[in-house]
Amino acid sequence: MNILDFLVPSSVALHYEAGDSKDVITHLGKCLFDAGYVRETFVDAALDRESRLPTGLPLSGDFNAAIPHTEVEHVLKPGLAMATLSAPVTFQNMVSPEEAVPCRLVFVMALDQPKAQIEMLQEIAGILQNPDVIQRLMQAKDFDEVRTTFSSDRS
Amino acid sequence: MSMRKTILVACGTAVATSTVVAKSIEEILRDRGIDVVTRQCKASEVASMTSGVDLIVTTTPLQGNLGVPVIQTLAFLTGMGKEAVIEQIIQALKV
User: Fold this and answer.
1) CB contact under 8 A, B61 and A95
2) CATH superfamily label, A3-150
3) What is the pTM of this model?
4) A50, A143, A122: which is closest to B17 by C-alpha?
5) Are B16 and A111 a contacting pair at CB < 8 A?
6) What local confidence, expressed as pLDDT, does residue A153 receive?
7) ∠ CA(A34), CA(B13), CA(A129), 5° rounding?
């Protein structure tokens, strides 16, 4: 399995200029909706879940990440959206929600069954634990460079 | 010989995160010869799921005194501090 098996090319936004976390979630959620992966309710559900159960993850390297997602009923088929941000936006820390995490990498996961598509999050976790891959990802200018980055990541 | 230990793994919605954490814990502990089974649930269900559980590992905050040791960690997602958390888990299981 590779993250490219899940990533929806039309739902990848590079150097996206986001006003705030809601902006990124809304943008990526709409991309997934336009591509037929999620229901119309997905964006609101993802925003609501993020406010109750935040997904910010502080990482060891220069960049932090967030992994917004929803309950399964808002999803039509499994897929993954991704944004690299030109400037950080604030997410709250998953394990300590009172703590703000400035994030420049956002993965929005569309998961259609509980405990399924675990490989998707496993692949994301593998990337989050690899600062070199994140560094290259943050510099990617187009989807081809994203593909190259993930293709060469066989860690 | 060690007794099989049960770890309850909790996350926000029990859609993906707890499964990834549970698999990771099982693999790492089994590699160290520690026999564990994991169960998964939403953070909001934890209080009703503690029967027979030796340890709770959670990626989201849990409310109240659950009568079972709790470890809150993102290490199995981000890799940060993973070794220390594994030691903490082994200590908590008293294996």
Assistant:
1) yes
2) Mannitol-specific EII; Chain A (3.40.930.10)
3) 0.94
4) A122
5) yes
6) 57
7) 80
